[in-house]
C-alpha cells in the first residue's frame, strides 16, 4: 500500500530532521493566524474612523485620519509578517525536504551497490537512476507539502468548525454533511491517482533506460547509420510516457470539478436552509452572511487537504519504487562466524565446483583445479565454457552451488566477502574505467596507493609510454568509460590498477582480447609485470599471452554432459610450447 510505503520511507529520516520540520510547521501555523488577522485592521478602521461605531474609549479622541493611517500601516505590517512567515516556513520545509532527499539518494545508491549481481541482472541501471532522481523528487514534494499544509489546514478546519457550531449548530451540521462525502471521493480518487502514477513512473523509468542505452552506444548508433531508427525507438518510448502522463493528468484534474460541486452543494444547502430561517425570522440576514463566510473558510482547508491526498498518492507510487531498491535483499550475508581473511597468498583450489546462473541451467560442474602459490595458470577453452565465471566465483560475486573453493587451504566462505575481494587484483574482460583522471583510475586498485606508487605501477605496465601524449598527463580526465584512450591503452590502465594493488592473488580476464599484435605485445609485458611472484589465474584465447603462464589448463565441455552442451567440465593440463 502506497501510504504505508511512503511512511516507511520518510518517518525514520523525518525523525532526524524533526526540529526543522516542527519549526516550519509552527511558522505555517503562525502564517495562517496572521492571514486570518489580515482583514481586521481595515474592518476596524472603517468602523471606528468612518462609521465612528463601537470605538473604544481610549481611541475616541484620536483624529480619524490618524486612525486610518494606523490601520494602513498595520495592514502593511501584517502583510509583511505573512510574507516573512511564508518565506521562513517554505524555506525551512524545502531545505529539510532536500536534506531528507539527499539522505534517500545516498541510501538508494549505497543499497543498490550492495545488491547481488542477480538483482542487477534484472534491473536496468537507468531505472535505478530514475528512482534516485525523479522518484526521490516526488517524495520530497510530499514532505514539503505535508509540512506546510497538514497542521495549519487541520487547525483551520477544527477552528472554523468550532466557530460555525457556536454560531448556528444546525446550519453548521448541514454545511459539514458534505465533508464525509468528500472524504469518500478523495479515498476513491487517491487509488486512481496512485495506479495512474504507477504506470507513469514505470514509463518514465523505461524512457531513462532507452535514452541512456542509446547515448551510451552513440558510437554504434552513428557508425551503423541507425540515428533515425534510434530516434524512432526513443520516440515510441517517449509517446508511451506522454500517454501515461496525460492519463495521469486527466485522472487528477477530473477530480477538481467533483470536489467543487460537492462543496457548492453544501453551500447551497446552507443557503436554502438559512434563507428559510431568515424568512421565518429565526436568523438575521447578517447572521446568514457570517455563516456563509465561515463556510467558505471551512471549505478552503478541506480543498487543500484533498489536494494533499493527491500529492501523497503521487509520492506513494514513487515510494513503492524506491522501497523496491531499499528493501531488496543485499547479496547473501556472510556465513555465520565469517571473519576477516588473513593475508591470502595461494594456493587456490577449486574442488568439485558446480554453478549455474539460472536454476536448471548449469554452467560449471565438478571443476577441479589447483593454482599453486606464486604460479600463473592460464585457462584456455572455447567461448562460453565458463572461464570468466570461474573468476567471478573466486571473487565471490557468485557462490558455487556445489563443491568448495579454498585459498591457503581454507574455504573462502569462512571469510567475509569484502576482506576476500580486497586481496584480489582483478582485471575484467571489459576494462571498466571510471569517468575520472588517469591517476585516479589507477589508484582505484588500492585503498592506500600514493602518487609515487601509481606512477611506478604505470611504468611497470607501460602506461607511461603514452601518458605524455595526454594533455594533462596523469591528471587527464579519461571520459566516460575511458573514451579518450585506445583499446590497448585502456587495458594497460586496467593492468596498472592491478599492479598498484598489494593483493597477492591476481585474476586477469582476456587482457589482450581484440588488440593488434603491437598493442598485445605491450599488454603482455604489462601482464608479466603484474603477475610476477603472484598467484595468478589468467583467462585468454591468445597463445602469445598464454606463454606468460607456468601452466595451461584447458577447460572443456564434457561430451558426457547429461544436460546437453553445458554441464560437466573436465580440465586438461599442458605446458604451452612455442
Ligand atoms: N550474468 C549471467 N546470467 C546468465 N548467464 C550468464 C551470465 N554470465 C554468463 N552467462 C552464461 O554462462 C556461460 C559461461 O559464461 P562465461 O562468460 O564464463 O564464459 P567464457 O568461457 O568466459 O566465455 P568467453 O571466452 O566468450 O569470454 C555462457 O553460456 C554465458 O551465456
Automatic annotation (TrEMBL):
It is found in: Cell membrane. Residues 22-314 form the ABC transmembrane type-1 domain. Pfam families: ABC_membrane, ABC_tran. It comes from the Bacteria. InterPro entries: AAA+_ATPase (IPR003593), ABC1_TM_dom (IPR011527), ABC1_TM_sf (IPR036640), ABC_transporter-like_ATP-bd (IPR003439), ABC_transporter-like_CS (IPR017871), P-loop_NTPase (IPR027417), Type_1_exporter (IPR039421). Its main location: membrane. GO terms for molecular function: ABC-type transporter activity; ATP binding; ATP hydrolysis activity; ATPase-coupled lipid transmembrane transporter activity. It is a multi-pass membrane protein. Keywords: ATP-binding, Membrane, Nucleotide-binding, Transmembrane, Transmembrane helix. GO terms for cellular component: plasma membrane. Residues 348-578 form the ABC transporter domain. The chain crosses the membrane at residues 65-85, 139-164, 170-187, 258-276. This is ATP-binding cassette subfamily B protein. The lineage of its organism: Bacteria, Bacillati, Actinomycetota, Actinomycetes, Propionibacteriales.
